[in-house]
Design brief:
The complex is a heterodimer of chains A (145) and B (413). Chain A is an alpha/beta fold and 145 residues long. In chain A, α1 runs parallel beside α2. Chain A is globular, with a radius of gyration of 14 Å. The N and C termini of chain A lie close together (7 Å). In chain B, the strands form 5 sheets. Chain B has a 5-stranded parallel sheet, sandwiched between helices. The chains are: A alpha/beta (145), B alpha/beta (413).
Chain lengths: 145, 413
């Protein structure tokens, strides 16, 4: 099965292009204490994605929970090549936008971030869907499952 | 964003690569949040000073900056490290882990960072004035500087803070603007609690307000009196359970001499009445463990003040921490020095408690201890313990925590 499904326009928060697989949750997420930077796996036991790898994926979740230490863990994941490759939120959290700015400044890795999703990301995209994201224009295309 | 001639030259690399990268990050941040221009800051405080937060990525970033000759441009202090530099063996820190933290210390020294290793820089050499603009991270220090002192800083992130330090600037948006510092949600204490507000209710109220306010600015009405340490404990809890960076406490904090001033003349968007029942419910949430045996008691989150050290010493004088239970009191080196001179440290150590300096339970690797249940008087610590320390956590008053260290058991609070 390979059919076009949906396309929407959010707000571009950090530049970059992504095409690949989505990982989707309707729970908020904090990278600090939330991800193992050596594997990219979610380690927050209270989170529904616990055990799932975010490495190289487009990570859809509604809101970020940001400790000021967030970029510490996030850049460690970037350095290890284990960070998510794109992020899509309902409302972007400043700490996560800063992660993308820092990844580009210090590790020359672009991680597009788009916000402005409808309240539940699961209404438009499911884990495993193929998506295309443009962090500048805010365009999100859900291509196929 | 409107940049000055000098700022454009920084971005052109005239002042070197570190300043170019640093200002580039800050300019993009400013563009993302609608800043009109940069403003100069009088100090910075950086959070990625522990190996736990900075990791190898941090060592790589700081090494590169140091090799390029970077130096901070304004007074810059740092958050706790991941070891007690003088006594890491006592806390069973693995040697290879300690070695990486010592590497970070060496690099930050080369950048010109003052090695305060504390989440309470305002008890050391970084004491802001009312109305000053700052570039701070560390959520508990940010909320203290904004709320209790009336200085102005957004919650910067790890590494954005060092960028601010390197150029002495931050983009002007958010809490740097007076119109963005007005209260949004009113939390009124009900009479059943406001008349008799216990010391350990401060972190509980902070925890509750953090959850309810999220990233909005809360105004608290009905507190009659609050000490430096109570405001510190309240703010740290609110900044941990929510993303609160500024609160106003009517009649207590400087931008809230009246309710009207706290809201900048506007009506509150929401009013919440907080009663005894709400405090009890929040207390229950903060306890992930049951009453019973405890093997670790953590005090000094945020780092203990000299007043708290005096209080701990008074409670521990002539007492003995139970065998099999650890009592660790976290503080910075400045307070430690004074507490030694005052004789408090001697009393604390004679009782079998350990002073943990320049770090805390949350920043250290504790795998070698196999702790099962922790007791603390800190709302911030209660919030993070289940993930950082990985144990159950029981929140209680300072007195109850010290009693737990002596008896090895915590009673329900």
């Amino acid at each position: 099965m390979s059919s076009w499904r949906a396309s929407l326009r959010g707000n571009g928060c950090a530049p970059g292009q992504f095409e690949g697989e989505a990982v989707v949750s309707n729970q908020s997420f904090g990278f600090w204490q939330g991800i193992d930077p050596t594997t990219g796996a979610v380690i927050d036991k209270r989170h529904d994605l616990c055990g799932t790898s975010l490495k190289g994926k487009a990570f859809f979740f509604p809101y970020g929970r940001g400790s000021t230490g967030t970029p510490g863990i996030f850049l460690e994941a970037v350095r290890n090549g284990c960070a998510p490759a794109a992020i899509v939120n309902v409302r972007s959290e400043p700490m996560i936008v800063m992660c993308a700015l820092l990844a580009e400044a210090f590790f020359k890795v672009q991680i597009p971030i788009v916000d402005g999703l409808p309240s539940n990301p699961l209404e438009i995209v499911r884990t495993g869907d193929r998506v295309r994201i443009n962090g500048t224009t805010g365009a999100i295309d859900v291509l196929c499952r | 964003m409107q940049l000055t001639e000098e700022e454009r030259r920084i971005l052109d690399g005239v002042f070197g690569e570190p300043q170019r990268i640093a200002l580039g990050v800050l300019a993009k941040l400013g563009d993302a949040y609608g800043a009109d221009r940069m403003i100069e800051i009088s100090s910075a405080h950086i959070v990625a000073s522990s190996y736990q937060i900075a990791g190898e990525a941090g060592i790589e970033i700081y090494s590169r900056l140091a090799e390029q000759g970077a130096k901070v441009k304004v007074r810059t202090t740092c958050d706790p490290g991941s070891i007690d530099f003088a006594r890491w063996q006592l806390f069973k820190t693995p040697a290879d882990y300690a070695e990486r933290q010592i590497k970070i210390a060496e690099l930050l020294g080369r950048l010109g960072v003052i090695p305060t290793w504390t989440c309470t820089p305002y008890t050391t050499f970084n004491v802001p004035r009312y109305g000053e603009d700052l570039g701070w991270s560390e959520s508990s220090a940010v909320i203290f500087a904004n709320s209790v002192i009336g200085a102005r800083t957004n919650r910067l992130a790890a590494y954005v803070d060092i960028c601010a330090a390197l150029v002495g600037r931050v983009p002007r948006f958010g809490l740097h603007l007076p119109e963005c510092r007005r209260g949004e949600v009113l939390f009124e204490l009900a009479a059943d609690i406001g008349d008799d507000f216990a010391d350990h209710f401060f972190p509980v109220l902070g925890y509750l307000i953090g959850q309810r306010a999220g990233d909005r600015i809360p105004v608290i009405a009905g507190i009659r009196h609050a000490t430096f340490d109570q405001l510190k404990a309240f703010g740290a809890a609110a900044a941990a359970s929510g993303s609160v960076a500024l609160y106003h406490m009517v009649g207590i904090t400087p931008e809230a001499r009246t309710l009207d001033e706290a809201f900048g003349g506007r009506p509150p968007a929401e009013r919440v009445l907080v009663g005894r029942r709400d405090i009890a419910d929040t207390l229950e949430q903060m306890n992930t463990g049951e009453a019973g045996e405890v093997d670790i008691v953590g005090l000094g989150c945020p780092h203990a003040s000299i007043d708290q050290m005096r209080r701990y010493a008074a409670l521990l004088r002539g007492k003995r921490v139970r065998a099999g239970t650890e009592l660790w009191i976290c503080a910075n080196t400045v307070v430690e020095d004074m507490a030694r001179k005052m004789g408090y440290v001697e009393v604390i150590e004679q009782a079998g408690a350990k002073l943990m300096v320049g770090t805390c339970h949350n920043d250290c690797p504790l795998g070698a201890w196999n702790f099962r249940r922790l007791a603390t008087d800190s709302g911030k610590f209660a919030y993070y313990t289940p993930t950082t320390v990985g144990t159950d956590c029981v929140f209680a008053s300072t007195e109850a925590c010290i009693e737990a260290a002596i008896t090895g058991r915590i009673e329900a609070s």
